[in-house]
């Protein structure tokens, strides 16, 4: 079982954050456009359960390569971060995958689109996101294989957060989708 240990915070300057990340040892990786369709249904209320079910299409802005993935996320596992179970696998054709889901009763909610710059340092991933109609955000994430490892991973994420000049008070536990729906 994979657990996604993640925090999210609003940022003022994309370029400043990217510079600070590189100064603290993060290596710039892919720049991608991610288009997410989340689902709801009569038999499973994802929003009420704090779960998520989505199909993501990704376009790599450097190579032009496209890919897609289907993802389930469980409810948040603590009160301070966005840590949750994550099950994700690639799919061949996002459009067909979405059609299949719609035929069996899953209804799409408004889409979430963002330009995402990935950075990596050891097992930590940093994402600098420009979310359409929302603004700029930073996410710090570690994926661990077992639940016992999530506390240590969160400590490591907090440490990085302090290194780049922020604290847990600066973070939000609200998803991009919920922020967009609240607008
Ligand atoms: P990732 O970290 O996997 O790249 P992301 O950063 O694009 O995802 P997040 O805001 O971290 O997006 O997570 C998306 C969140 O949307 C889910 O974790 C879930 O809590 C929320 N969500 C999913 N479906 C619904 C829904 N129907 N209504 C409200 N919120 C939802
Ligand atoms: Ca996230
Ligand atoms: Ca994540």
What's the layout of helices and strands?
Blueprint lengths: L1 E9 L3 H10 L3 E14 L5 H4 L2 E9 L5 E8 L10 E8 L2 H10 L3 E2 L3 E10 L2 E8 L3 E10 L5 H14 L7 E2 L3 H7 L1
Antiparallel strand pairs: 1-5, 1-9, 1-10, 2-3, 2-6, 2-7, 3-4, 4-5, 7-8, 8-9
Bound molecules: adenosine-5'-triphosphate and calcium ion (CA) (2 copies).
The site of one calcium ion (CA) has 4 residues, from strand 1 and strand 9.
Kindly describe this structure.
The mean pLDDT is 97. The chain has a single domain (2-182), classed as Hypothetical Protein Pfu-838710-001 (Beta Barrel). The radius of gyration is 16 Å and the shape is globular. Helices cover 25% and strands 44% of the residues. It has helices spanning 14-23, 46-49, 94-103, 150-163, 176-182, and strands at 2-10, 27-40, 52-60, 66-73, 84-91, 107-108, 112-121, 124-131, 135-144, 171-172. Adenosine-5'-triphosphate binds at residues 6, 36, 38, 40, 46-47, 50, 52, 73, 82, 109, 139, 175-178. InterPro entries: Adenylyl_cyclase_CyaB, CYTH-like_dom_sf, CYTH_domain.
Which terms would index this structure?
183 residues; alpha+beta; Hypothetical Protein Pfu-838710-001; eight-stranded antiparallel β-barrel; 5 helices; globular; binds adenosine-5'-triphosphate; binds calcium ion
Helix and strand content put the structural class at alpha+beta
Q: Into which percent range does the helicity of residues fall?
A: 10-25%
Percent of residues in beta strands: 35-45%
Tally of DSSP helical segments: 5
**Can you name the CATH architecture?**
Beta Barrel
> How do the strands line up in the largest sheet?
1-5-4-3-2-7-8-9
Number of domains: 1
Silhouette: globular
CATH topology, what is it called?
Hypothetical Protein Pfu-838710-001
State the name of the first-level CATH class: Mainly Beta
CATH fourth-tier homologous superfamily: Hypothetical Protein Pfu-838710-001
Distance between the termini: 34 Å
Organism: Blautia intestinalis
Domain CYTH: 2-182
Pfam family, one: CYTH
InterPro entries: Adenylyl_cyclase_CyaB (IPR008173), CYTH-like_dom_sf (IPR033469), CYTH_domain (IPR023577)
